[in-house]
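Below is a filled-in request sheet from our internal design queue. Each sheet records the structural input a requester submitted and the sequence that came back. We keep these sheets so that new team members can see what a complete request looks like end to end.

REQUESTER: design group, bay 2
PRIORITY: normal
MODE: inverse folding
CHAIN LENGTH: 281
BACKBONE (tokenized):
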């Protein structure tokens, strides 16, 4: 099932072509996006997602994003989607068909991929891959758009295919000095002695909305949380290693670079329960 609503309020058929062939999002991946989980009719972390969309758009010199218009567009999708059916809600804004033209902006509701649903339960195997970026690069070279959620995800998708070739489900990117960065579509979270750790966004990674929500939930459940640089060794020696993202939520990593990790099913279950409790408050 799919529901498509453009930012101007028009509701269109997602099975029919809607994008011009010269759209710069299509031609160059020139645009920004967000992916939001909708459960029980409620879009999770909508405000942080819209804030990040605004920040990403500003980094790409796209027009200012009208958050209220986006909210109305999201509501239009929600009214057309069954309340009891989980949804992936994607917000996309491209530069449009020519540099002086109107951006193309739409919200698309879709079903959650079966593979992601399975991974939430079973956990995943992950390999570490070099991202080829070094310390300070995000600040030194803002045109690289590190930390923006741009549509240019070809590298991220290639990393997942490389992980698959190596017999794993997903990847964790490392900086050239071995510092842990993020997954191609997720944030890295490590558990040790009832403290959760995640790398700082200053390393050039995307600040994760689900990681922030998890840290909030974990603190309420009595955990400590720290945002600090992590080394590969920290991943191996952790009590638990997790990848978080809006749709996969908290996915347990059971194998790293072919080596099994300590069994973290218990802490995973506890963190998932705390995370879910955040949305029942
Ligand atoms: N890092 C990258 C590169 C991502 O693409 C994503 C989400 O897709 C994340 C981190 C996690 O972000 P969030 O928790 O907001 O979904």
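RETURNED SEQUENCE:
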């Amino acid at each position: 099932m799919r529901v498509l609503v453009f930012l101007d309020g028009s509701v269109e058929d997602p099975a029919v072509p809607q994008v011009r062939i010269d759209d710069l999002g299509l031609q160059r991946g020139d645009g920004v996006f967000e992916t939001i989980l909708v459960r029980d009719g409620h879009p999770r972390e909508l405000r942080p997602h819209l804030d990040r969309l605004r920040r990403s758009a500003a980094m790409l010199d796209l027009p200012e994003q009208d958050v209220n218009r986006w909210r109305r567009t999201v509501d239009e999708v929600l009214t057309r989607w069954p309340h009891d059916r989980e949804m992936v809600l994607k917000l996309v804004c491209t530069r449009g068909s020519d540099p002086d033209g109107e951006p193309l902006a739409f919200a698309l509701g879709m079903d959650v991929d079966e593979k992601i649903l399975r991974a939430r339960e079973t956990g995943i195997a992950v390999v570490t891959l070099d991202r080829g970026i070094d310390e300070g690069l995000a600040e030194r070279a803002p045109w690289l758009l590190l930390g923006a959620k741009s549509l240019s995800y070809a590298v991220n998708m290639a990393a997942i295919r490389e992980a698959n070739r190596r017999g794993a489900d997903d990847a964790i990117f490392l900086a050239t000095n071995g510092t842990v960065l993020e997954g191609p579509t997720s944030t890295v979270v490590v558990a040790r002695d009832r403290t959760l750790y995640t790398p700082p966004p200053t390393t050039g990674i995307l600040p994760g909305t689900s990681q922030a929500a998890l840290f909030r939930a974990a603190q309420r459940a009595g955990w400590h949380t720290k945002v600090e640089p992590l080394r590969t060794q920290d991943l191996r020696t952790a009590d638990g290693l997790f990848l978080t993202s809006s749709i996969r939520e908290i996915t347990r990593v059971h194998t790293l670079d072919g080596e099994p990790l300590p069994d973290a099913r218990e802490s995973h279950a506890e963190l998932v329960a705390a995370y879910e409790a955040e949305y029942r408050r």
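SHEET NOTES:
- The chain has a mean pLDDT of 96.
- The domain at 116-278 is CATH 3.20.10.10 (D-amino Acid Aminotransferase; Chain A, domain 2).
FILED BY: M.R.
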